[in-house]
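Example 3.2
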Amino acid sequence: MNKNLKGMKRTFSRRVRQVALSGIAMLLTGAHSSSAQSLLAKSPKREVRAVWLTTIGGLDWPHVYARSGSSVESQKNELRSTLDKYQKAGINTLLIQTRIRGTMIYPSALEPWDGCLSGIPGKSPGYDALQFAINEAHSRGMEIHAWVVTLPVGKWNALGCSRLRKRFPSLIRKIGDEGYLNPEKTETADYLADICEEITRNYDIDGIHLDYIRYPETWPLKVSHQQGRQYITRIVQAIHDRVKTLKPWVKMSCSPIGKFNDLSRYWSHGWNAYTKVCQDAQGWLKSGLMDALFPMMYFRDEQFYPFAIDWAEEAAGKIVAPGLGIYLMSPKERNWDASVITREMHFLREYRLGHTYFRGQFLTDNLKGIYDFAANSFDATPALIPAMTWISSSNPNPPHGLHIADGSVSWQPSSSRLVFYNIYSSRSYPVDIEDAQNLIRIRYNQTNISLPTDGGRYYAVTAMDRYGNESVALQQANMQAPAVTKSKLPMLACDGSRVHLPSPAKQNDANVWLIESLQSCPIATRRQNSLWIDVRDIPCGIYILKSLNRKGIAHRIGFFEIRR
């Protein structure tokens, strides 16, 4: 374990407190220091950016029942529109609620249709919603994980629960007016494994995402917590073995309680995964039963930051993408300011953790500007999902025969099986595939793509296997590069550390300098200086320099290239 992180976990050190609460706050209130702005610019090439799409009651989707040909198409179009918005917000992982409460959104041999699609429990909507969602997500370069609600099976007399009670009369426990599969019965592990096997076998999903894989908080626990954890782990083991036997690249994940356990200086207030509900999520990562965790961290301040560090420390090299309670910004909830969430997002990125929104509609409704923040700033460049190198670290063979003509880029397929393609583009040669800003398409499943309209660009293509391992780049030959359109803007002198500015007469009354990528993504700002600006903290590449005057009007000043 990293000793520095371990120390932060124990003490929630002064540095962490400053970064989490004051340093990032400075960024979000518009401070112009170079260190602050460089933190805003950090957008990694690999990072999970996920969203929970809730289908129970049609909360996130669908909002139209499928009862005719036209209403089926309306329901499909609604999902297409939602996924388009997710894509623009940088989402690369869709967690779609597939098993709801003993009911499904696909034609299952084990459980009936949920009523969210047709409006009538048990009635088919006339199409396979899960297959449709998979096709649409994959066409947008997103992974799609089947979100399976495990132990809760709904109201006691509802369709899902009543059918399971008839089939397994001794397996369902009643708590209040709800039914639950008994985690202490071996049949529960077998049955949930059957469900996950059915999904994995029949669908090209990228993950099985287990929800509520824990004791209900109201369960009268009559065994030790250690025994309880063994019962829950037995279920996880059974599902893992079935899924991985069929398709080892399918990610196993769950959504544990957001605080794993009490920390030495921070109390979980009696609500944690390990000792309260017998959920050994960190142990599952370390033992290989899980590939990823999406902890439900719907908290703020000292109930968020030290527990986030704990997840980072105990990730065991796997994927952790904490869930953020963006719904808590709603005036109907706790009316949090948007800065609560955006500070948390910056903090998670600093500790190389992903982020997951709960839930989808609060994101697409742009609650307190959260969608704009993601789409236009924080996640403006695409990101690949971290590779599952703990299962396979062998890189696929690259594609070959890159050809550029007639407004499109095409290539010959990789000789490796089960691959997607990532496409990169830049105005410098060779294309730097480690720079996230050069990514233009991810997990692409075709072998040709239309060119951007601005011309003068170089291209590179890589193959990526189902584990996320990437091949070496197939670079466009230098002689193939389209002629660069001459720009009226000058190329500014840059020695790798400083950009020399034009004469004061050409600075358009600059008050602040804005540095953008060639994709018009803001990278950094600098205070006005009539001679030069410092770019030592900016990666190599070609950038656009703009001036911002006191009225907020921007002017393009020129290009500059950083080489070191």
